[in-house]
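Chain A, query sequence.
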Amino acid sequence: MFFLDNAWLTWALPASAFVVILFFGRRLPGKGAEIGIAAVGGSFVLSCAAAAQWIGRGTIGEGEERVRGAVDHTLYTWFSNGQVKVPLGIHVDGLTVMMLLVVSLVSLLVQVYSTAYMHGDRRYTYFYAALALFTASMLVLVTSSTTIFLLLGWEGVGLCSFMLIGHWWEEKDNSDAALKAFFTTRLGDAGMLIGIIILFFANGQSFDIARLNRAALSGGIDHTVLVVGAVALFMGVIGKSAQFPLHTWLPDAMAGPTPVSALIHAATMVVAGVYLVARCYGVFWAAFRVGHHPAWHGISYVAVIGAITIVIAAALAFVQDDIKKVLAYSTVSQLGYMVMALGVGAWTGGIFHLFTHAFFKACLFLGAGSVSHSGSHHSFDMKKDMGGLWRAMPITHATFVIASLALAGIFPLAGFWSKDDILLTAGKNGYNAFMVVGLVGAFMTAAYMARTVYLTFYGEHRGGHHGGQHSAAGHAVDAPHESPLAITVPLVVLAAFSVVAGWLNGFGVHWFAEWTRNEVVVQAHVPEYKFSAPTAALSMAVAVAGIGVGLLYYLRHAFGPLHRATERSSLARAGYRFLLNKYYLDVLYTDIIVGSIKGAIARGAYWVNQRVIDGAVNAVGIGARALARFTYEVVDQKVVDGLVNGTGASAEGGGSVLRRLQTGRVQQYAAFLFGAGAIGALALVLYANQGAR
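Chain A, predicted structure.
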């Protein structure tokens, strides 16, 4: 099992590529792109080989308890503190292998796509270095065997998202978006760090995730402590996976290059939180009693946050004109689906939706980038610069429509199967209210994607032909046309996965569930249900209704009273403004909360600076001056100079005495010499007599 035992190679390659590109990329023919593509391509090959070995691995147990044993491999002891040793190790099971495939494949396609999309960019080499580190950090996260090693990858993707969202940092909006993403997710990460510390001590001073899950499910951790630790841990999920109320950073993150948006939304940053819940599922299952438990009456803290996020984000997608922001709010809503799924006991459904969503959401973002690159003169405004592009961009159009239908949950595409699994499990486990929320979200998703497809590809072309204009890279702007192969080939690959990926867990096929089932799911007795035609039909009907409403509104101008309702009704105008201002959450956070305290904080910081820091510096200066004065007046003038002057005075006094002996008279010198000789002779006699005795 070489590839499973050495899964660390999947992140070692892009991590090494980051260093090589950073130092030598500018000297290479491809400016570092070839190194990034080769390294991530190698990671994808290693991931495929690991998946093949995992599928061929023997199982233990029977039926729904049949499971493949995880592979744990300690690389070395990272650090130790007394009796506590923290290993740097990997844990590979079906969940890990699935994430390896998703992250490496989407990252590889994004790298290839970027060769055309980012061509001529002023920081092209830096971009590829950051992409490589981004991929490496996410792969570290999904292979980690301990929460502390997972935290390293977790913070790595946060750092890389900051670097890439602010890639064009010269524009203030871009740098503001990067800072907003960084600080908002750091707020959640503070809670996560507290959770890791609490669970470390609750788990017998161990960061090991497998041991933590076993202890939580076996009752080895006090339930109150477990709840506090799980709530703190979930704060990190709320921040990183853009759940209510910390979802506000993700739409603004569209300021970064479109390939970055695709990577963040499909395979790295935002799915990290969902992965954390799935990986530590024993903690959340036991803490919140996720299984059908009468005492909780079908309510789950995790599911509540996910359900709220589904609806509020989907509503915001309707009022966006920027195609990337529509897709961003769509991502927030779909992440809500995944979180809600895990909160209602749909473990397989939650991670299956993560799997399928990666393909069609990456396809949608890269499709939006293709439209901007070749169809709308580098604009993302659907109402002003798009429309009527389906003839000029047939491949982009076809792949975008396929991905949109998959997102809407239309049979037989990938999103249909994963959403159906979530809705079915929610209903079967007694979470009927959340099943209804899921259906409402499905209707809204289908409707706003119908709006997006229509405004982008149908109707009259609103962009016009701006002859003579030039792009940021200096290339002449043409009429809308299809994008180059480096862009369209990744779109076709992702569209193909958007069609077939769902069949891994469709009808009587349960390969995905079987391959990803792990010891935690078995120990917790997480239920899995067979395909239900009535639930699937209901889900499909709701999605079709959503598409129908969207198309009728735009194609046939149906629902007349709704058209220009904001001009006739103050209530409609207020509601539209409420959505346009994103529920005023940014106003609450920035203007009210931060605005109300930043003055006090600034004044406090100034007081500390003046009274404490400057006081300490001034005190050191005053002390130094006093010490210098003491050194000069006492040590230098009285001790050192006194010693020197005293030595000189002594020498002068001795010289005065000796000067009197030097008279120049030979008789006097002879007398001195005779006297000295007599004294010497007497001393010798006395010494000899003393020796004879």
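The first helix runs from residue 2 to 5. The first strand starts at residue 59 and ends at 60.
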